[in-house]
Write a structure and sequence with these properties.
This protein has one domain: ABC transporter involved in vitamin B12 uptake, BtuC (Orthogonal Bundle). Helix content is 75%, strand content 0%. The protein has 13 helices and no strands. It is globular, with a radius of gyration of 21 Å. The relative contact order is 0.20.
Length: 354
């Protein structure tokens, strides 16, 4: 991919959000509110103060990590729709590791981060193995495995590892020891070191995909699997490594939420906000570009936190963010439909050489 194409991938999230904001402006005008005032409140809710800006970055952190995981798999041509289940299993594995591993706090923290990455990665790799061994469709298996992971995690915090010291109505693990928490970046703010992990992951993934031998194999499989196989690249190897790393990043998304925000695993706390699916949207908006995915994650998080400010200070409901996100989904759908149409036309013109 040349520099112009990479720059285009970075611009896609900005263009998509602009289109979404225009549609949102129309919806605001329909309900009789001031578009300028509403968007001013949205900006204030997302970046209007240092406190609000750190809240936006905090919300962007799990979205970014989940989106990067999906982006890696998509870049290699493998459709991983299981980020939500991988995130949940990674989170519960990290919580249990931090709770029951003996040793000092720094060891518990490091082990919990590793456990979250490993468990999320292995759960994703299982889907890759099913594809390689039994030709099961990767898109379907990863999607259905979400339900298994979420229900299994729910069972763990409802029965064997439930916190019985507090309210019996909440399915959750006991509180993790403070020494194993991710440190806050600023005193009194919600932003934690997980954001730095996400930022470093985006940069490393970009470097790996762009400048490493494995990244070359990933790009070749994403562009043309037949040519990659003809060139001696082994599909199973690339798929398993890609799915392992993809699921690991998704597992890390849940891990940093547990260690940096919730300090325990709470059933439903990761699935209700839709972090994984927002990460998927960020990945699609950025054409699976790692840095573009990070930027899109930040924009989508700002949209969500800004909408909360709109609801607090205007008569416009929180659902305005849903309207804008719906338009973004339509934008992504239209882009993929156009790409599919172009490939089909090219195939009709040039036969099987495309």
């Amino acid at each position: 991919m040349n520099n112009r194409e990479w720059a285009t991938s970075l611009l896609h999230p900005l263009v998509a959000v602009l289109v979404g904001l225009l549609a949102g402006a129309f919806a605001i005008w329909v309900v009789g509110a001031s578009v300028i005032e509403t968007y001013a409140e949205m900006w204030k809710g997302a970046f209007g103060s240092f406190y609000f800006a750190t809240n936006t970055l905090t919300r962007a952190t799990p979205i970014m990590l989940a989106g990067l995981g999906v982006a890696l798999a998509f870049r290699a041509g493998f459709f991983n729709l299981g980020a939500e289940g991988q995130m949940v299993l990674g989170a519960v594995a990290a919580a249990l590791t931090a709770l029951y591993l003996p040793g000092p706090g720094w060891l518990k923290l490091a082990a919990a981060l590793f456990a979250g990455f490993l468990v999320g990665g292995l759960w994703s790799a299982v889907a890759g193995w099913l594809d390689a061994a039994f030709k099961l469709n990767l898109l379907i298996t990863t999607l259905l495995m979400n339900y298994i992971a979420i229900l299994f995690a729910g069972y763990l915090v409802t029965e064997p590892f439930k916190d019985t010291t507090g309210s019996a109505a909440i399915a959750q693990t006991p509180m993790i020891d403070r020494a194993a928490w991710l440190p806050k970046l600023f005193s009194g703010m919600s932003l934690h070191a997980g954001f730095l992990i996400a930022a470093v992951a985006a940069l490393l993934l970009y470097i790996i995909i762009r400048h490493s031998a494995f990244g070359y194999e990933v790009r070749m499989f994403g562009y043309n699997p037949s040519f990659a196989a003809y060139g001696g690249i082994v599909r199973t190897r690339v798929m398993l490594i890609s799915m392992l790393a993809s699921g690991g990043l998704a597992g890390l998304a849940g891990t940093v939420e547990v260690l940096g925000m919730q300090y325990r695993y709470i059933d439903g706390a990761l699935t209700v906000p839709g972090y994984a699916w927002t990460g998927l949207m960020a990945c699609l908006l950025a054409n699976s570009h790692p840095l573009g995915t990070a930027l899109a994650s930040l924009l989508l998080a700002a949209l969500q936190t800004g909408a909360m400010g709109v609801e607090r200070n205007t008569e416009v409901p929180l659902e305005i963010a849903s309207v804008i996100q719906a338009v973004l989904i339509l934008f992504v759908s239209a882009k993929f439909s156009y790409s599919f149409w172009k490939r089909r036309k090219a195939r009709e013109s040039h036969g099987t050489t495309v």
